[in-house]
Amino acid sequence: MTETVSGSATRGKGARKGLRMERVHTTAGVHPYDEVRWERRDVVMTNWRDGSVNFEQRGVEFPDFWSVNAANIVTTKYFRGAVGTPQREQSLKQLVDRVVGVYTRTGRENGYFATDEDAEIFDHELKYALIHQIFSFNSPVWFNVGTSSPQQVSACFILAVDDTMESILEWYKEEGLIFKGGSGSGVNLSRIRSSKELLSSGGTASGPVSFMRGADASAGTIKSGGATRRAAKMVVLDVDHPDVEEFIETKAREEDKIRALRDAGYDMDLGGKDITSVQYQNANNSVRVSDEYMRAVEAGGKFGLRSRTTGEVISEVDAKDLFHKMAKAAWECADPGIQYDDTINDWHTTPETGRITASNPCSEYVHLDNSSCNLASINLLKFLQDDGSFDVRRFVKITELIITAMDISITFADFPTEKIAETTRAYRQLGIGYANLGALLMATGHAYDSPGGQAVAAAITSLMTGVSYRRSAELAGVVGPYDGYARNAEPHKRVMRKHAAANDDLRTVGIMDRTIHTEATKQWAQCLKLGEKNGYRNAQASLLAPTGTIGLMMDCDTTGIEPDLALVKFKKLVGGGSMQIVNQTVPRALRKLGYQEEQVEAIVAYIAEHGHVVDAPGLKQEHYEVFDCAMGERAIAPMGHVRMMAAVQPFLSGAISKTVNLPESATVEDIEQVYMEGWKLGLKALAVYRDNCKVGQPLSIAKKDAKETAAEAPAPAAVAEAPRPTRKRLPKQRPSITTSFSVGGAEGYMTASSYPDDGLGEVFLKMSKQGSTLAGVMDAFSVAISIGLQHGVPLETYVSKFVNMRFDPAGMTDDPDIRLAASVMDYIFRRLALDYLPYDERVALGILSAAERAAQQRGEDPASLQEVVDPATLQEVVDPESLAQSAPVEQPRPAAAPKPVTIEPASRPGTTLESHQARTADDAPLCMTCGTKMRPAGSCYVCEGCGSTSGCS
Questions:
Q1: Residue 194, Cβ neighbours under 10 Å: how many?
Q2: Residue 271 confidence (pLDDT)
Q3: Residue limits of the Ribonucleotide reductase large subunit C-terminal domain (predicted)?
Q4: Which residues are tagged catalytic?
């Protein structure tokens, strides 16, 4: 795509050097849009609570190879202008033209290109790469560039707070401005004196943890004000701060409070009306540890906590005990994470300007205070060729193009504060990264946690950063190095040599990584040579972001550096609904491993049914590891995630947004080991998450369980033998309700019969053809439940046991009162509760109708909506002795929502219809916008339904 020339081209008042551009994807005289087949689509998004339409734009234009999901996200998130007006964007062409036009024009005006022809090539290559999903800029670029809004291009910010009230209040204000723009920020509060120190007036200081409350409330308020994403922030405290123990335990104490309030019946779901009473929930917390401290932990020695005003040691702690408290708090609530201060600053390119003290919310951007970084991520799977090789040349060229564009963006960008603008323009920090690594490794037959997989990832990362800094040196020769380079030239060049030395130490395993590494070695040699001559245009070049929304925009299977989440994916379909299919990387990997087509089909069908590869027909056990995922039957071990991070960290300017997932059974000592190994392996930052460690989640409900019911019942009389329950049979004629339902695309019927005078006594379920296994299981289940009801088992007991039970099929239903169900059983017993249990009992179980929920939101008493239904008005003759043979007669439910459109699955083996909410992390929150279950993306979450994220990028 590009190369630098020593010649010049005349522009303006004199001659200058400029970049000469090379066509790689495009053809002279042909616009890239003309080589794509475009089609019109309708984008309609509905509210998961009541089915109402909350977004509608018809006739939007996208390439025919873009998925429905990607088109929906771009239309709803990135198209500008009021819907329904002529100003509204309606084509991907308009969006890309708006953004790329500013980049090309700014490059021309500021001497980046040798000739106008080179500017046109840059314009065409950039447009081609974007519409073909080869890479994407971060979200603020799509939000703001080319609009009347400030041209904010950065997603990541780092602020600074001094030990004065004026500085603390300015921090609140600056964070608010950043959150308003849809970005995230981080800050280190260690300059604020501790609660153990005196103020100049003689009083005792409040300490940083106290001031965190105000910032947390501010973030929560702005988040609820309708921004495009939840406020994302990071708070860091140094390990030698006297208040570090209070900081460590802050969120764990709040998690205990959440449990207590939940058990008392308060709504502590994420987004619930009572969760706002709990503090510190809007930030990620991290402790910044030094090598001195970590060595003290290893030795079991003491460690001094220092006054922030004098620097003197004012108390000592047991280093190992403090480390245990850190791990215990993370075990309880996933906070705090850990940042390795000396490692971060050892790789710092501008130490003469200042130390690195903090990071952005996801910990991948680590650089100077009061600075920002714009991100862009490459879709790695786009470089995997049909023969299974990695297209090294195209990867080099696309990296050059992206770095050039990202640097141009700093030239025209606007910033939320003057301090940030000054630092960013002086140091020009960039954050190129990638997505789809997990899919690339699987498709090429590499296990994620293996020397081969780690070598491929390391080689690609080294090549990306080597090309980025080589291009930065070329840009420095054309438009000059960054303003702060002169005072930091030696340390910057030292870090470049460290990267190159790490590349020399990289040990390759196979042909693929060896080829990439060979090119990386050449690029680092050119980088050092050009840097010595020209300096560098950018103080930072690369990092690995979570790639949440933009990963969906590029139709990536995996985000950032993450492995695949699961072997089964959900594909959204035109007209609504979604299809569950085995990941297309799976058959690609099987073919790469040498399996014949018949074997591939059999294995794919097995995976579709079971969700994993264990005991798949014909699959060799030594190949199981290739299909290991972040979750499921064969989940990657926690240290496998750490080893992958360690493999790529030496080749990144910044750090890595990634959470190390641990099973619920993990111990505090397991987390201590992860934190210790992260330090030994040279990571810059690390965060952990233990399954189910947080209770303030959307699916956590306060319910009355069997123990509580038993505690309220009177004690039985002391008798020699407890009386046996007797069966109360239903009469030959009894009232009944027949309900047709659809859960995640699976349809069925339920007939519920009741005693004429008192309560439910029989349930019949039908979900498949007579004689099938599923039909037999449902018949048997129906008989068991019916006999239990007739022997006096209370319905609420069944409801408490089966509600929230999780298995496939799951997802969206056609019932307006129950829009989402975790399984068919979850739906059935919620429906039975709504039909047969009184309001007070349903409240205790957390089950309300749509009308009752709406009344609550209006501040009305839902109990006033209750009406007594006379079961005698619904008559049906059912023979209790022939449950297994009787056929249901559908009695349509009044006011039922229209059933969603369902589409028959393709003929591909193993495809089934199912909602795309299933098979995601159990603890992932529901999307605040559309209600879809979110999925992990780095240390954040992303909604596959509408693209909303819980963090940066």
A1: 25
A2: 60
A3: 154-689
A4: 360, 362, 364
- Do the beta carbons of residue 430 and residue 403 sit within 8 Å? yes
Taken in order 224, 226, 229, 234, the sign of the CA dihedral is negative
DSSP three-state, residue 710: helix
Pairing of strands 156-158, 135-137: unpaired
Q: 378 with 402: CB under 8 angstroms? A: yes
Tell me how far apart the alpha carbons of residues 389 and 458 are, in angstroms, rounded to a whole number: 16
Contacts of 584 (CB under 8 A, 6+ apart): 557
- The DSSP secondary structure of 288-326, one letter per residue, reads EE-HHHHHHHHHT-EEEEE-TTT--EEEEEEHHHHHHHH
> So what's the pLDDT on residue 879?
41
3-class DSSP string for 406-468: HHHHHHHCCCCCHHHHHHHHHHCCEEEEEECHHHHHHHCCCCCCCHHHHHHHHHHHHHHHHHH
- The ranges assigned to domains in the chain are 1-132, 732-882
Residue 845 in tokens: 């179980």
Residues 6 or more apart from 115 whose CB is under 8 A from it?
Answer: 9, 18, 20
In 3-state terms, what secondary structure has residue 329?
A: helix
Long-range contact pairs involving 782-789 (C-beta distance under 8 Å, separation at least 24): 782/883, 782/884, 783/883, 783/884, 786/761, 786/762, 786/880, 786/883, 787/727, 789/759, 789/760, 789/761, 789/762, 789/763
User: What residues contact residue 622 under an 8 Å CB cut-off, 6+ apart?
Assistant: none
The helix/strand/coil state of 667 is coil
Contact status, residue 553 vs residue 70, Cβ threshold 8 Å: yes
Q: pLDDT (tens digit, 9 = 90+) per residue, 92-135?
A: 999 999 999 999 999 999 999 999 999 999 999 999 999 999 99
Reading the block at residue 401, the tokens are 């193009």
First to last CA, the chain: 26
Tokens of 513: 């990584």
Q: Residue 754's beta-bridge partner residues?
A: 760
The rounded percent of the chain whose pLDDT value lies above 90 is: 57
Contacts for 896 with CB less than 8 Å, ≥ 6 apart: 814, 815, 816
Q: Tell me if 815 sits within 8 A of 896, measured CB to CB.
A: yes
Q: How many CB atoms lie within 10 A of CB 405?
A: 27
| Amino acid residing at 257 | K
**Residue recorded with tokens 């089964």:** 568
Q: In what order do the strands lie in the sheet with 578-582?
A: 568-572, 578-582, 912-913
Give the residue ranges of DSSP H helices in 110-152. 116-131, 139-144
pLDDT of the residue at 486: 97
Tokens of 850: 């749509």
* Neighbour-count burial of 605, counting CB atoms closer than 10 A to its CB (0-12 exposed, 13-18 middle, 19+ buried): middle
User: Any idea which residue has 């879709």 for tokens?
Assistant: 379
pLDDT for the residue numbered 279: 74
Residues making up the chain, counted from first to last: 953
* Structure token pair of residue 464: 């990306």
Give the pLDDT confidence score for residue 865 in this predicted structure.
62
Give bridge partners of residue 303 from the DSSP assignment.
Answer: 317
Residues (pLDDT < 70) of the chain are 1-16, 47-50, 181-182, 220-231, 269-272, 274, 570-581, 695-724, 768-772, 857, 859, 861-933, 939, 944-947, 950-953
Strands of 121-264, DSSP E: 135-137, 156-158, 184-188, 232-238
Helix, strand, coil content of the chain in percent (nearest 5): 40, 20, 40
Helix (H/G/I), strand (E/B), else coil: 365:
coil
- The Cα 735–Cα 719 span in angstroms is 38
Q: Pull the structure tokens for residue 404.
A: 């050039």
Dist. CA 424–CA 431, nearest whole Å: 13
Query: What are the CA-CA distances from residue 584 to residues 579, 600, 619, 910, 944 (Å)?
Result: 13, 11, 17, 12, 17
Q: Can you give the pTM of this predicted structure? A: 0.76
Q: Cα–Cα distance between 303 and 318 in angstroms, integer?
A: 6
Extract the tokens encoding 49. 């609570």
